[in-house]
């Protein structure tokens, strides 16, 4: 099935399992970061990102920078808003707190709108919040990796455009791009930030951002210069424009090997209709969620409409903790993740179902994992009774 | 000699040619960033970095973060100094200007001490400058990639400790770590920042920093919090300490594949005495510099004592420009870089001689390159005469 060394299937909500060809691209021989062969690869990569985000706005701008998803927060906080500005952060888990912390580092004033664990802020609450202040941006975590809660970014974005049209719509898509549909133009999004190692299916090490023409305009009309250096679009914007246009350009050295791997996975992703990719994720997710329900277990994400399609956060039976279950799953060949939401971390586990584990018909990762989950939880419950 | 696909030898001052095993490590199957197998790899990697930097100070702290060498500047500017502080930047080329730009982004006041192109600030000039202000830090570019000028970091550091003992000694070692000797403890250095893709011999994508116990103390006694988020040691310090101690820890997702590759190259580097590694670089450099002289060409770095051992910046014959020479070298199987120092970019080329190209006796990269350089320059001169 795969020519990788034998290893347990990595089914955490990122990093995910990678395709053989993608991993082989990581071993690409060394190339100059300003030589034409690599420039062509980077150019094609940036163009394919436009397809993945379903944007045809020529003024929209993709950025691919060595880093991690977290660097996307810095890019937003230091380029799209200015010290003293207000932003509204919709909270569906751990990652909203961290994004808020990032904004505050750069002198931005944050208002968080928090939902109960397992839920998301409701549209009427968002509308009321938007009317309270002049927010320069709103952030929405599309899928919070700590809870598996899915936000309704299309509806929130349309609401923002209606009631607070000057507010930029920023989506943290670290755990959604590639596994959840995102119609960048149609939904009026201004910035989506993500990372390479989840739905996109490329090893970790890249911060990937798509900014709308409107976001770039906002950036270009800043009153003060960007407040970070490594994440500054003043430094990166001309570089990305040049690379995409096939012109060598230098600010900081990109990682040719990671860009090759990203090129390979984007080539695979864009070679089939995106709709079938998202359908495969929905189908796998339904299979997982049905299995979870049939085990008598519940999800953190409390309603069908707020459950992510690329991961499932699963409450363990009362009194059972992740260390009682995860090693059993590992022994059965699958790696799940423990809880991450501080208040309830000891009560749940997380199952990632993204990328080749759901799109490659030759892989049986999901079925193996469902079987292991059932057996592992049963064994843990039996042991606890002893 | 190598099982990599046929390709021209990459002899720019980074990225360099990589060892087969290092590239194979880039294809490592996917692992959890918080699973014990990867935690062990990361722990060993951090410990090997201490050896490479020749530090035994238990309070010194290595950092390895997804990014590039440039991110090291952000780490220094946002963690080791505070807005309003003065820093003294010794200028030996392009990269001092950029480091200064980074400091200014974070509200630091920069004084640059500039040497003529091809030289470095002299010790008496540094001493005089240090006495003019209360500098919180001094920065020295160990090897400026744009000029090939080598700074005398040991002597500058000892001078700083003598005349301005509160000033932190910061070294930009992006183009020196792994190819030039650095005795972190003995020379009293407080921070050395570097990247993976040059003397260390691992593909691009990692920012690598070593901070002294004194630097960490200075960080811990900051009056204001770190002024960047992704590069904040408040976020990263506990993570690095935990990984090194073998404990899983999470702030932002590291790149397991890049860390594996770094582990492989550091295992190779630390398996032989460091002195022989640096001697190999000095010997290769002498061979290159002798060949350059025998072609009647001169170097940007104007004196034997200020010439780097991992690269050579070579003035082309009068009237000959890089586009007249570089394609000829490429046709002969070697990739050199063009000029980077804005004032003279069209007058010179750069030849990187670091890593396996000089340490692997099975590789003939340097001899091939010297021959190609002679032929290529001769041909360009003949063509120009027509």
From TrEMBL, chains A, B:
Alphabetic keyword roster: Aminotransferase, Pyridoxal phosphate, Transferase
Source species, domain of life: Eukaryota
EC number: 2.6.1.44
Gene3D superfamilies: Aspartate Aminotransferase, domain 1 (3.90.1150.10), Type I PLP-dependent aspartate aminotransferase-like (Major domain) (3.40.640.10)
Cofactors demanded by this protein: pyridoxal 5'-phosphate
PROSITE patterns recorded: AA_TRANSFER_CLASS_5 (PS00595)
Protein name as catalogued: alanine--glyoxylate transaminase
The species this protein was found in: Neodothiora populina
């Amino acid at each position: 099935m795969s020519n990788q060394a034998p290893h347990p299937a990595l089914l955490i909500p990122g990093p995910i399992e990678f395709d053989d060809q993608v991993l082989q691209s990581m071993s690409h021989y060394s190339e100059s970061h300003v030589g034409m062969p690599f420039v062509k690869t980077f150019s094609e990569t940036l163009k394919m990102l436009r397809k993945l985000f379903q944007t045809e706005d020529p003024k929209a701008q993709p950025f691919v920078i060595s880093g991690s998803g977290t660097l996307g927060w810095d890019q937003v906080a230091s380029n799209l808003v200015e010290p003293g500005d207000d932003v509204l952060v919709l909270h569906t888990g751990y990652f909203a707190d961290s994004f808020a912390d990032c904004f505050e580092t750069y002198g931005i004033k944050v208002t968080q709108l928090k939902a109960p664990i397992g839920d998301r802020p409701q549209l009427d609450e968002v509308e009321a919040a938007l009317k309270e202040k002049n927010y320069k941006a709103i952030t929405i975590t599309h899928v919070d990796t700590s809870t598996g809660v899915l936000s309704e970014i299309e509806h929130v974005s349309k609401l923002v455009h209606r009631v607070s049209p000057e507010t930029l719509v920023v989506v943290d898509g670290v755990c959604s791009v590639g596994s959840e549909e995102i119609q960048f133009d149609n939904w009026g999004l201004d910035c989506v930030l993500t990372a390479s190692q989840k739905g996109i299916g490329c090893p970790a090490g890249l911060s990937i951002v798509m900014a709308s023409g409107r976001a770039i305009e906002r950036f270009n009309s800043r009153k003060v210069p960007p407040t970070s250096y490594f994440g500054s679009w003043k430094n990166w914007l001309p570089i990305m424009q040049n690379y995409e246009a096939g012109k060598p350009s230098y600010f900081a050295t990109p990682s040719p090997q990671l860009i090759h791997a990203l090129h390979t996975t984007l080539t695979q992703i864009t070679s089939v209709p995106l709709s079938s990719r998202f359908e495969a994720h929905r189908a796998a997710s339904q299979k997982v969620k049905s299995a979870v329900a049939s085990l008598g277990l519940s999800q953190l994400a409390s309603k069908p409409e707020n459950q992510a399609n690329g991961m499932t956060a699963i409450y363990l039976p009362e009194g059972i903790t992740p260390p009682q279950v995860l090693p059993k799953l590992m022994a059965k060949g699958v790696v799940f993740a423990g809880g991450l939401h501080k208040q309830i971390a000891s009560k749940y586990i997380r199952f990632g179902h993204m990328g080749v584990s759901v799109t490659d018909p030759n892989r049986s990762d999901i079925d193996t994992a469902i079987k292991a989950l059932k057996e592992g939880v049963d064994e843990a419950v039996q042991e606890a009774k002893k």
